[in-house]
Amino acid sequence: MLSRQVQRPPRRAGLRRAAALTLAALLPLAAQAVETLRVLSWPGYADPDIVKAFEQRHKVSVQVTVVGSDETLWERVNGNNGGDFDVFAVNTAELKRYVDKGLAVPLNLANIPNVAQQLPRFRDRFAIPNLMRDGAVYAVPYTFSEMGLIYDRQQLPEPPTSIAALWDPKYKGRVLAFDTGGHNFSIAALALGKPDPFQLDDAAYRDIAAHLIALRRNVLTFYSLPEESVELFRDHKVALLFANYGTQQVQQLRKAGADIGYVIPKEGALAWLDCWTITRGAKNKTLAEAWINYMLEKPVSRALTERQGLANTVEPSEMDDRKNKIIWLEPVEDASRRSRTWGHIVSGDRPVALESR
Predict the structure, then answer these.
(1) Which of 10, 210, 229, 274 is the most buried (most CB within 10 A)?
(2) What Å distances lie between residue 351 and 3, 329, 339, 346, 356, CA to CA?
(3) What is the pTM of this model?
(4) How far are the Cα atoms of 184, 230, 265 from residue 163, in angstroms, in the given order?
């Protein structure tokens, strides 16, 4: 009798454990508190199948938010002091202000071993502006493109030679430009022959703002996402497009059947180098670094190139042949002022932000 009484509790405990395991197995995934990595990305950087493979490998959930301008990126990260996202993609010129404000944090490269397979020029972090601060690494290069001009071969039998073609009245209503203050001030500076498109004094700033008003009057509209530009180009018989997303838009338009050409204007083309970095609000910094490491795996980087037409940092690129005409983005004299003024210009209001910084 005593032995049977001693043996019963373990059987009941075993049944309770079995019932608990069965209940856990039946619970929805969301109810089991799966960790979530919050990624802020540009279009095409995190395709669903690429994300799913990372989720399965690390047994986590990945939440991807896509942005369409540097201004929106800044608003999303700065809005809650970096608390709404864990890892985000940003170009090297914009990176500086995130580091300045403490919104980005140094990386532990020991958790990102795939940096060793990047091309030598991307491993030379001291040679790439804004990646380093006080000996610490804040970002890892991921992809890059110049921003050339895309033109419809049927409407322009000869390729445009200058960025000034965006202002040519014979293309009025058939021009697409990108909806941003930062880049548009710089390309207008190039069109006007200003010596430095990234550092404008007040006199140059006023000239350029007036030139951008003229651009607004010449364009069909301003786009934000590459897919949007493809639809507008196709549906409205656009003749000329400023390609903010560069070779990504070239590939998308050609896949859509557009008969296009792509050219680097005589003034040169602005170019961006996008990097992955981590916010100070990251909930799991090691997981965020695992994401960056995953993005540098050759199959993942190669998928970016094959699907999006963008160069990656682990394999040679056709863009290397055009490097003598590339103007890499640099931090501008006042990003907030450019954004405010652009807001007035694109809305058709008087750009009151011209008067003072």
Answers:
(1) 229
(2) 90, 25, 11, 9, 11
(3) 0.87
(4) 11, 20, 6
